[in-house]
Design brief:
The chain starts with 18 loop residues before the first helix and ends with a helix. The chain contains 6 helices and 2 strands, in the order αβααβααα. The chain is about 65% helix and about 0% strand. InterPro entries: DPS_DNA-bd (IPR002177), DPS_DNA-bd_CS (IPR023188), Ferritin-like (IPR012347), Ferritin-like_SF (IPR009078), Ferritin_DPS_dom (IPR008331).
Length: about 190
């Protein structure tokens, strides 16, 4: 049963918000929490498995992103609890409810990982943008939380993309649709 079919209406919520509206926000935040927990683990995976001449630059760039994404997950979980919901942070809930596949690149060249990570960030950012739009129709506090996170995630993607952009301004990951395809294009750059 996914969060979209469960009744997530809380028994209580924050003042000024209807319980049904809070239930919609809880469902929305549930997937954001899963995405952030997954992103945190994916970033650590890249950090541990990156190799090649750009190793240290990428290795050191990733850890601050990991820390901030973990903080984002904590903020989302706390907002869920404040709304009267349950912050499902278990691996089983993440795997059973996520709407995306697991990260598919193992040990690999730094640029290949960054290209795949660009695809990951695109998916996460698109999900946050959709959540911002939906939350904005219900609750400005939740919308504000998501907007703040969106800015940071977009900055992290910019950091990643700086390694993938040519001097002419073209992006190695233009027109790719999967991590593996992006990683192959990134490997060509190296």
């Amino acid at each position: 049963m996914t969060s979209q079919t469960k009744d997530l209406t809380p028994k209580y919520t924050v003042p000024g918000l209807e319980r049904e509206a809070a239930g919609k926000l809880i469902g929305l935040l549930r997937l954001r929490l899963h995405a952030l927990n997954d992103l945190h683990l994916t970033l650590k995976h890249v950090h541990w498995n990156v190799v090649g001449p750009h190793f240290i630059a990428v290795h050191e760039m990733i850890d601050p992103q990991v820390d901030r994404v973990r903080d984002m997950a904590d903020d989302v979980a706390e907002r869920t609890a404040a709304l009267g919901g349950v912050a499902q942070g278990t691996p089983g809930a993440l795997v059973s409810e996520r709407t995306w596949d697991d990260y598919s690149i193992g040990r690999g060249d730094a640029i290949a990982h960054l290209a795949a990570l660009d695809v990951v960030y695109t998916g996460v950012i698109e999900g946050v943008r959709a959540a911002v739009k939906e939350a904005g129709e219900i609750d400005p506090a939740t919308e504000d939380l998501l907007i703040e996170q969106l800015r940071d995630l977009e900055q992290f993607q910019w950091f990643v993309r700086a390694h993938l952009e040519s001097a002419r301004g073209t992006l190695a990951t233009d027109d790719v649709h999967s991590e593996k395809e992006a990683a192959a294009k990134g490997a060509e750059m190296s």
